[in-house]
Specification:
199 residues, alpha/beta, 6-stranded mixed beta sheet, two-stranded antiparallel ribbon, 5 helices, 8 strands, binds iron/sulfur cluster
């Protein structure tokens, strides 16, 4: 599976001490994408499922939840399914961010993608639309995005978390400072938000 980074503990992408994993590759080209460096696939980022599981198993503190983001996690649906199945042994709180709408995921005609949706606890659907970023709502980067809860037991945890506003965390990683969380729009007034999606 092509992944770029795996960080713990992360508090800015869901409630509790979370393990967050960034999956590489995305065919969308949203204007002001938070992680443009993850749009392109890169064979050098290939990590075997065994190594990913070993890395996760080495975390000796309680993992309250897992956040899977990217990039586009559903571009590697078969591997995503395997990793979710493994992660469900650790926690019942698995949040996936996807740039696809639910319909787009079903249109992929990929059984693994559908199984991933069914297994995830929370899914946030929809590409990022910069002019719909209200610079305020936690977890929802732009108001077109839809949050879907699959386990009523964790709803209150998310509602309480979302009452506290956006959180941004900075991690020093691979000689870079990485800013994690749902960011406010960086768009300048009057800036053209159209992007070329042919790449
Ligand atoms: S869907 Fe997400 S990762 Fe893909 S281009 Fe849009 S914001 Fe970036």
């Amino acid at each position: 599976m092509q992944i770029d980074r795996l960080l713990y503990p992360v508090h800015s992408l869901g409630p509790g001490d979370r393990l967050a994993i960034w999956i590489r590759g995305c065919k969308k080209r949203c204007f002001n994408c938070a992680n443009p460096e993850l749009q392109l696939f890169n064979p050098n980022s290939e990590v075997s499922m065994t190594v990913i599981k070993e890395m996760i198993s080495k975390i000796d503190k309680k993992i309250d939840g897992i956040t899977i983001t990217g990039g586009e996690p559903f571009c590697q649906a078969k591997d995503l399914f395997e990793i979710i199945t493994f992660m469900l042994e650790i926690t019942d709180d698995i949040l996936i961010f996807t740039g696809y709408s639910k319909k787009e995921i079903y249109d992929l005609n990929n059984d693994y993608a559908i199984k991933c949706i069914e297994k995830a606890t929370v899914v946030i659907y929809g590409e990022y639309v910069d002019e719909l970023n209200d610079n305020h709502t936690p977890l929802i980067a732009s108001s077109n995005q839809v949050i879907e809860f699959h386990n009523p037991k964790i709803n209150n945890k998310y509602i309480n978390y979302m009452n506290n506003g956006r959180i941004i965390e900075n991690f020093y990683y691979n000689d870079n400072l990485i800013s994690v969380g749902i960011h406010n729009s960086r768009r300048k007034k009057g800036e053209n938000t159209k992007v070329d999606k042919r790449n």
